[in-house]
Specification:
Elements (H helix, E strand, L loop, with lengths): L10 E3 L2 E3 L18 H10 E4 L2 E9 L4 E20 L2 E22 L3 E10 L13 E10 L2
Length: 147
């Protein structure tokens, strides 16, 4: 399978390069106390997730500054996870094709800036490979800058 990436301008956020020819970045959360650097770094090394999310996104303008939006799509994820509890470790691999739905509001100001409040639900994350196949809810507040 060959995936062609759309050519975009590369920017840097902190030390992470986004767009252009940069590798695709994946974000995860740690369950360790992040003040315990060794445990946190070990957990980060043990979690590897790869896969795209394909999403359709629609906006409803309410005024020149306010917009509501909705999204629906699929998350295709392959996750390899190793857990260690009291010296005993276990490895598992989860292949997931999960539906994602979301909605939010966006406020634009100053021509280039926007603030976005977003609620997203990923349904049955992990699919049949995971006991219970939990739904995952995410609430985020983001700021956008358009060139």
């Amino acid at each position: 399978m060959h995936i062609t990436r759309r050519k975009t301008k590369q920017i840097t956020v902190g030390s992470v390069k986004i767009g252009g020819d940069a590798a695709i970045s994946v974000q995860s959360m740690c369950s360790t106390d992040t003040r315990d650097i060794n445990a946190t770094v070990e957990q980060i090394r043990q979690l590897e997730t790869a896969g795209p999310a394909l999403t359709a996104f629609g906006m409803l303008p309410l005024s020149d500054s306010w917009q509501l939006y909705a999204r629906v799509g699929m998350l295709f994820a392959d996750t390899d996870l190793t857990t260690s509890i009291n010296g005993s470790s276990d490895s598992s691999s989860i292949d997931s094709d999960s539906t994602t739905v979301g909605a939010g509001a966006q406020y634009d100001w100053g021509g280039h800036w926007s603030a976005r409040l977003d609620l997203q639900r990923t349904l049955e994350l992990g699919g049949d490979d995971m006991f219970g196949a939990p739904d995952v809810d995410t609430i985020s507040l983001g700021f956008l800058y358009r060139l």
